Amino acid sequence: MQILFFRYSFILSEINYKTLLYKKNKKAYNSFIIYLIKEGKKTENKDKKNITRKKIINYVLNNHVTSKAGIAKELNLSMPTVLANVNDLLEKGVLEETGEYASTGGRKAKSIGINKSYCHAMGILITANHIEMVLVNLGDEIIKKDRIRLKFTAELSYCTEVAQKVKTFLEGELAKDTLLGIGVAIPGIIDQKERIVLKSHALGIENYSLRFLEQALEIPVYFENDANAAMLAEKKQKYPNAIYLSLNHTLGGAFCIDGKLFRGQNQKAGEFGHMILVPGGRKCYCGKSGCADAYCAASVLTQDNRQSLDAFMEKIESGDEKVLQTWNEYLDHLAVLISNLRMAYDMDIILGGDVGGVLSDYMIPLGEKVMAYNGFEHDVSYLKNCSYKKEASAVGAAKYFFTKHMGEL
């Protein structure tokens, strides 16, 4: 009862609550309590309906094509509940009938899938020298992408130029009412509530307001740390508890618990790049020495962009001894970092970023090195390849809007 009073306490401002609490006005008091109980049940039923609907949408998304009977069986829902929700989602256009299953003697069951073109979202990754843009449909498919050289500056003109690039990118692509919003991934620590980049070494900014960029884009905008966004690009149902190791030009990370990003008290959770890996070791851009970033970031292989990662990997294939030595040392340090993270968190570890995108062919030698540091496990099945070898941060930032919209249906 106290919870109900709390939930609807705003009503008391319009009602003389003192009269309700006196015994001489028991009738009014009882009527008010009945009203609160009814409203509480309405809210509870609505919450249950939303949870059920999200489960159905996620199930269809993960299975691509299914049937009403399949949904009922796998989600342990009654057929009336499934029929009511699925029919409503079909009417709204979120789901669509994709065909028929083979007859088993009775009426043919209709196959159901996600209507990928129901809605779209755009994702942007801002880096020091480029912006990366993607347009994603509800099926998590990238239907358009572009990478433009644009040097970041803290000037207002930069926001205006980004907005113009976005406008050009979207021209003629889709009906405006299907675009839910734009997710913007930024390499830095972000205060989402205040729309501020608290600190970004990569962009060279501190306490930088994002409101100018938000206003310039003129549609709903979501800002996220680049590593967190890359984590969001992965399927939560596949990895409800996992670490994402973002092996880009700089090393970042993120992790989720029960399918939700864990941000920490100061939005700094997942800053694995600045864990000390080699005490007194190489100088890191943050000012410390021996950080994991100085040993496991992609810049170690690309020599701070003096060569591309593709060129480095080609030299490995050609048997360049110097490059092979650098690669072997890189894997040694990465193995130590992975082993430490596994010991600390006991979760799956997703290898992402630029280097993560090329590691799939080197999982055996990496796994052997990791096992040398871990005497508690007999394999490295917890090491996972990322879903997106490129554009992960931009895709994850865009996908935020799908999650938000599906929760509001």
UniProtKB/TrEMBL annotation:
Biological processes, Gene Ontology terms: D-xylose metabolic process
Keyword check for Membrane: no
Keywords: Carbohydrate metabolism, Xylose metabolism
Secretion signal span: none
Domain of life: Bacteria
Membrane-crossing segments per the record: none
Cited function: Transcriptional repressor of xylose-utilizing enzymes.
PANTHER family, A to Z: BIFUNCTIONAL UDP-N-ACETYLGLUCOSAMINE 2-EPIMERASE_N-ACETYLMANNOSAMINE KINASE, ROK (REPRESSOR, ORF, KINASE) FAMILY
Family of the protein in this entry: Belongs to the ROK (NagC/XylR) family.
Protein name: ROK family transcriptional regulator
